[in-house]
Amino acid sequence: MSQPGTGSQRLTSCKQPVSAGSPNAIRIAALWTGVGTPIGSAASRDGRVFAAYYNADRWMEVVAVAANRARVCTIRLPSRFAGWDAHNGIAMAIAPDATLHLVGNMHASAMFYAQGSAADLSNLQPARMLGRDEDRATYPTFLHDSAGNLLFLYRTGSSGDGSWLMNRWGGGRWQRIGPLFVDHDDHGHVSAYPSSFAVGPDGTYHVAVVWRRTPDVATNFAVTYASTRDFVTWRGAGGRSIKGPLGPDQMAMVEQTGPNAGLVNSASVIVAPDGAPVILYPRHARSRNDTIVAARPTRGGAWQVRELAVADGSTSVAGGGALAALPSFAVLAQSGWTATLRLSFPPRAHPVVALNLKTMTAAPGQVPPADAPVAVYTPAQVQGMAKVSTRQSPVLENGVDGPRRATLRWFAQVANGDTPRACTAAAPKACAPPPAPLILEY
Q1: Closest by CA position to 108, among listed 2, 249, 220
Q2: Residue 427 scores a pLDDT above 50
Q3: DSSP character string of 376-415
Q4: CA pair distance 438, 210, nearest whole angstrom
Q5: How far apart are CA 24 and CA 29, in angstroms?
Q6: pLDDT tens, 27-63?
Q7: For 224-258, b where at least 16 C-beta lie within 10 A, e where not — what string?
Q8: Distance in angstroms between the alpha carbons of the first and the last residue of the chain
Q9: pTM for the complete prediction?
Q10: For residue 322, is pLDDT > 80?
Q11: Given 3-state DSSP classes, what are the helix, strand and coil percentages for the chain, each rounded to the nearest 5?
């Protein structure tokens, strides 16, 4: 739920940043913490950092940090986060022509979009992108094509009945490339849940899709795969060349689990050094316990599917809205033929494994060394809230696929099925939580 177009746009006075207790960290904003939503961010080539978030009063704000970190400027946009929907994240990108773009605060609702020059935050203005197919938008995603053009991908429609559309920025305006994934097949309505696109060494884009029949996550029924060079012509089932939009039958079938199989719509693609895709996704094992699966195509066109680890219990993968505490994984690092993964089976084990991308065998792994994180909060700030998690997000140059320039850190309550949290004796501040500092770490 959102309130786009209400209120007024306002540029606040610029100010000096506040130290976050480390020479390399500053406090740049205060966030609403009722539920965590993705923060949009980008860095310009000259070192300025931008971040888009919901402030303590739930208004969408954009903060710009000067390259020398001596000044922080903020603009409030006329879009207010009215609900508790964890889908209402914000995406941001800087195009090759130095225009700043952001989209967000929507879940099957009207698209909120703003654009302006990255050189002057005050000219960032709400606008229409194309003005069509934007009334029920979700999952804003920016990416680049092989020529470096800025693309925008989103779903129009709803869960279980939504298609995915792609636009391209060029000549100072957006143009429609076309639909990417269908909203129906021969058996009825479907909704695609694509992974992020992974780029191989030859410039090929790889994507895995989890397919669903209804808004209930229990109706996830298949994992499919396709690749493309231009987002128009694809390689699908049997390696044949096909035109979009893609449905479950046109794409290569990785695994058809059927409904009620614990399949979670959070697939990810890793590209091995030989250019082969390795697809990761959670589902139930034959024992019905939770597992994380890795799949790689064989020379014959079939898929080699391996269960990397099986939990000692089973999670109910059912219901609608943003669900917390589902089995998941994170790709911590990739070095040559080895990918280091953290597997999560809440509230149980969180093992780290090293996956050999050639043999598809997994062995115990180690968390890659990293700098000590900044202390984002103190226990006193979190006291009285419900199920708080610390969050972090990299700030990439251009916001899409450039080098990492900084890290954002904050805290918020976890998803609650997109419904408000109630204040209780155990969590008296859950319904009206205190704001969190947004920390920028260089």
Answers
A1: 2
A2: yes
A3: ---HHHHTT-SSEEEEEEEEEBTTTTS-EEEEEEEEEEPP
A4: 33
A5: 16
A6: 999 999 999 999 999 999 999 999 999 999 999 999 9
A7: bbbbbeebeebbbbeeeebebbbbbebbbebbebe
A8: 34
A9: 0.90
A10: no
A11: 5, 50, 50
Per the document, the length of the chain is 442
Structure-block tokens of residue 18 = 């506040």
Computed on alpha carbons and rounded to an integer, the radius of gyration of the chain in Å comes to 21
- Quick one: what percent of the chain has pLDDT higher than 90? 79
Both tokens of 415, joined, read: 């998803």
Instruction: Calculate the CA 73 to chain-centre distance.
Output: 26
- Strands 436-441 vs 25-31: parallel, antiparallel or unpaired: antiparallel
Q: Which two tokens stand for residue 355?
A: 């996956």
User: What is the rounded distance in angstroms from the CA atom of residue 263 to the CA atom of residue 242?
Assistant: 27
Contacts of 290 (CB under 8 A, 6+ apart): 262, 282, 284, 310, 311, 313, 314, 315, 327, 345
Q: Name the token pair of 113.
A: 């979009």
Sign of the dihedral through C-alpha 21, 25, 29, 33: negative
- CB 295, CB 283: distance < 8 Å: no
Omega prior to 245 cis, within 30 of 0: yes
CA distances from 20 to 188, 355, 359, 438 (A): 53, 37, 45, 9
Residue 269, both tokens = 């693609």
Three-class DSSP labels, 233-266 = EEECHHHCEEECCECCCCCEEEECCCCCCCCCCC
Per the prediction, the chain carries an average pLDDT of 91
Which tokens belong to 233? 């012509």
Q: Given the structure tokens 């610029």, which residue do they identify?
A: 14
